[in-house]
Amino acid sequence: MSSNQFVRHTDNDQSGLPAGRASARPAPGRADVVPDSPTTREAEGLQHKRRNRRRGRGEIVLFAGPALVVYLLFVMVPVGLAGYYGFFKWNGIGPLTDFVGLDNYVRALSDPVFIGAIGHNFFFVIASLLVQGPIAIGIALLLNRPMRGRSFFRVLVFVPYVLSEVIAGVAWLLLLQPNGPFDALLTSLGLGDAVQLWLGDPTIVLWTMLAVISWKYIGFAIILFLAGLQGVPEELAEAAQIDGASWWQIQRHITIPLLGPTIRIWAFLSIIGSLQLFDLVWIMTGGGPANATSTMATYMINFGFTRSQYGYGSAVAVILFIISFAIAIVYQRFVLRRDTEGALTRRVG
Amino acid sequence: MNRRSTRLVALATAAGLAVAALSGCSTGGTNAAAGDDVTLTWWHNGTGEPLNGFWQDVATEFEEAHPNVTIEVTAVQNEELKTKVAVALQSNNPPDLFQQWGGGQMNDQVAAGKLLDVSDDVAEELEAIGGSAAGWQVDGKTYGLPFSMGISGFWYNKALFEQAGITEAPSTVDELNDAVDKLKTAGITPIVVGAKDKWPAAHYWYWLALRSCGQDVLQDAGKDLVFDDECFTEAGEELQSFIDTEPFQEGFLGTSAQQGATSSAGLLANGNAAMELMGHWQPGVMGGLTEDGKGLGDDLGWFPFPAIAGADGAADAMLGGGDGYSCSASAPPECVELLKYISSVDVQTRFAETGAGLPVTAGSESGVTDPNMVALLEARNDASYVQLWLDIAYGNNVGGALNDAVANMFAGQGTAEDIVTAMNDAAAQQ
Questions:
Q1: Is B103 on the interface with A (CB under 8 A)?
Q2: B20 and A180: CB-CB below 8 Å?
Q3: Option in A61, A173, A178 nearest B12 (CB)
Q4: Could you report the per-residue pLDDT of B35-67, keeping only the tens digit for each?
Q5: Would you say residue A301 has pLDDT above 80?
Q6: I need a surface site. Which of A231, A297, B68, B283 has the fewest CB within 10 A?
Q7: What integer pLDDT is reported at residue A96 of this predicted model?
Q8: Helix, strand, coil % over all residues of chain B, rounded to 5
Q9: ipTM exceeding 0.90?
């Protein structure tokens, strides 16, 4: 991604060239490049252009059509239905008759358990960024240096991410039981005093979950950063080295800034993931004890399915959607903008 | 070019329509009474043996006796089945015969007109089943029949009791407290509870409510969903003082009920604790959590939940739950025939022999041989009444609120009044 920035630089240089040179090299296949032509040929050119455009549309329908239909049917329609159900008191069986307006939303936002769940989500958003970010960057920088067994270590850090959430959750659930393997490990290391009721103490369990979540997802961050680092040109580091910069200075002033776009994308994915956190929490604690680890998603499942309040659960789903969507939009607008400018914010061509 | 692109558009549209058509209608052979041939769909939760094979045998026998009937039996994992049934009942193509736990969830299905009223067809079976069928009836009408009705109680390790010097199974809460003290003195974890899963913790409250409240109070509350009687608060206070004696294992808030050797059932099965309050399925679960697959074997004993001296509730009332089957509203008459066949003495006796549950039809008791199961069966048959698990009796909504509130009390974050408030609030939102 950093290489894009680098390449874009040269692009800009090229566009600064005299126009004559650019037009002397007509871009093949680009319908909107109209070559300098006499007025008599203009009509024919337009017709050609229109025909090309129609053909383009046909291709778009062919390639995007099926995906779009599936997307509409299985994503947009359910989202719309959830919004609709959210206005009803509905137990999932029988007809939708009990319209309650915004009552479900008022109820959710005045339920201290749901407010607590939102709080836990934001705790995971911020703590995941603060914990995983620096560690992942550090490990990625280390693994980017030539050393023996590098690919082995790269695979190793990525393993937790490849494991399914269910397997990882059950494994940690068993490891963290009182007097379980994890406690035995601590004791054998002489850290017996540090042993806690990892999953049984409401004041500890949120931190336990943070540790497990970080363990689970840090491999993803590291792989992203490693990929980003491949795009950082070595020449820059070499040039800095010749100028007498230390390894640390090079990382601090060249590599990390050039890794910026990757870091911003990772942060975006991490934030959205934390807001929608469900599987690991559901398996390891079920949101407990005493709602100490409930998230918006576990709250939604608890009410929607376990308690058969599908209307209320739908309203909670809509709130979760709105919060995630709002954060995504704000992040796109203010943080990702410089990375995606031209690709998302402006029409191409 | 033009024609080709038109064709492309048509192709894409056709593909889209095909997808829409596929998702819009689902195919299935139910109710298609073409001639005399009938296909019955049957959903149950017996994914493991012996139940899976047993139900398949029952289906095959029924097919042989009724050549025009084909039965499609599907075993679905328990939690998944509940969601699947709820969704299928909404559709135009529900299963004909499906597992039914009775109580509030069934009331909702009846209110929505999704179940077949079988009252007139099963009069004989109802007589043979007796009081256990009450959980499958609404306003005097029958919407399903149970095939198994079990009760819960304390499963205990006889060897550890002996080691702690306890000679007799506790019959009052005071005696239970004494036993807990003796076990602690002997360095044994007295009781395990899988409070992470909430319902195992909530069972203590159910039992204490059963011992604190009269039968009328409990059943009226189930009907009106109003929990104002003082006995409900008393149940919570009893529970609080029991929790205060710290009878449970370390870190019980994070312990699951049935997952692995460190779950509550696993701890009991491996001799790491003396007791657990659990349903009739416990021996089967424990067996799966030990290396030899046998659980505690002959060391396993059972006694009913002890009485509270001077409380309103009957000391011989039992708390339990059962498994049954309902026919959906659109099911053909053969579904009712199958339901009756499942309730027959023959099938019920063989069901009892599998050891997977306690049969309900009179005359099938001979199939029960395990001494603990015989004790359970006697306690159930001698009970003044068997109350359905309260979370099932009161429906998912109030029941879920009850389980959450009791779990909070176990975590030290709720009072006896909070539990009652949570139930009343949930009922008001229904």
A1: no
A2: no
A3: A61
A4: 478 999 999 988 777 888 999 999 999 999 999
A5: yes
A6: B68
A7: 85
A8: 50, 15, 35
A9: no
Asked if pLDDT for residue A184 goes beyond 50, the answer is yes
Q: B14 CB near a chain A CB, below 8 Å?
A: no
- From A218-222, A280-284, B88-92, the region with the lowest mean pLDDT: B88-92
Mean pLDDT on A25-31: 43
Q: Please tell me if residue A198 touches chain B, with a CB cutoff of 8 Å.
A: yes
pLDDT digit string, tens, across residues B268-281: 999 999 999 999 88
Would you tell me which residues 406-425 of chain B have a C-beta closer than 8 angstroms to some C-beta of chain A? 407-408, 410-414
Looking at residue B115, the DSSP 8-state letter turns out to be B
The tokens describing A334, both together, are 């203010």
* CA distance to partner chain A, nearest, from residue B407 (Å): 7
pLDDT at B187 over 90: yes
Do the Cβ atoms of A89 and B429 come within 8 Å? Answer: yes
Closest among B355, B348, B250, B352 to B294, alpha carbons compared: B355
**Residues B150, A128: Cα–Cα separation, whole Å:** 47
Q: B249: burial class by Cβ within 10 Å (0-12, 13-18, 19+)?
A: buried
User: Minimal Cα–Cα distance from B283 to chain A, Å?
Assistant: 22
Chains A, B: CB contacts within 8 A come to 150
**B110 phi, psi to nearest 5 deg:** -65, -45
Contact of B83 with chain A, judged by CB distance below 8 Å, is answered with: yes
**Contact between B251 and A285 using a beta-carbon 8 Å cutoff:** no
- Environment class of residue B221 by beta-carbon count within 10 Å: exposed (0-12), middle (13-18) or buried (19+)? buried
**How far is it, in rounded angstroms, from Cα A169 to Cα B254?**
13
Interface of B with A in 229-288 (CB under 8 A): 249-256, 259-260, 262
> Quick check: helix, strand or coil at residue A308?
coil
A233 to chain B, any CB pair closer than 8 A? The answer is no
Burial of B186 (0-12, 13-18, 19+ CB in 10 A): middle
- Shortest CB distance from B397 goes to which of A173, A199, A309? A309
Residue B5 has pLDDT above 50, yes or no: no
Does position A104 have pLDDT exceeding 70, yes or no?
yes
Comparing B159 with A307, the larger pLDDT belongs to B159
User: Which among B8, B254, B407 has the least Cβ separation from residue A200?
Assistant: B254
**Lowest mean per-residue pLDDT among A150-154, A320-324, B164-168:** A150-154
In DSSP terms, which residues pair with B275 in a beta bridge?
B156, B191
Residue of A nearest to B412 (CA): A290
CA distance B386 to B210: 10
Q: Does A312 touch chain B (CB under 8 A)?
A: yes
Torsion angle of the four alpha carbons A146, A148, A151, A152, in this order, in degrees rounded to the nearest 10: -150
**Token pair for B178:** 């004494």
Least confident of B108-112, B257-261, B297-301, B348-352: B257-261
CA distance B300 to A61: 68
The answer to whether residue B291 scores a pLDDT higher than 70 is yes
Yes or no, beta carbons of A290 and B408 under 8 Å apart: yes
Distance from CA of A114 to the nearest CA of B (A): 14
Question: Using 50, 70 and 90 to split pLDDT, how confident is the model at B369?
Answer: confident
* Element (DSSP H or E) covering residue B275: strand B273-278
In angstroms, the CA B405 to CA B198 distance is: 9
B21–chain A Cβ distance below 8 A for any pair: no
Residue B385: pLDDT band by 50, 70, 90 thresholds?
Answer: confident
User: Quick one: which of A135, A172, A119, A128 has its CA closest to A296?
Assistant: A119
Render the burial of B28-47: b for 16+ CB within 10 Å, e for the rest.
Answer: bebbeeeeeebbbbbbbbbe
Q: Decide if B8 touches A, using CB distance below 8 A.
A: yes
AA identity, residue A50:
R
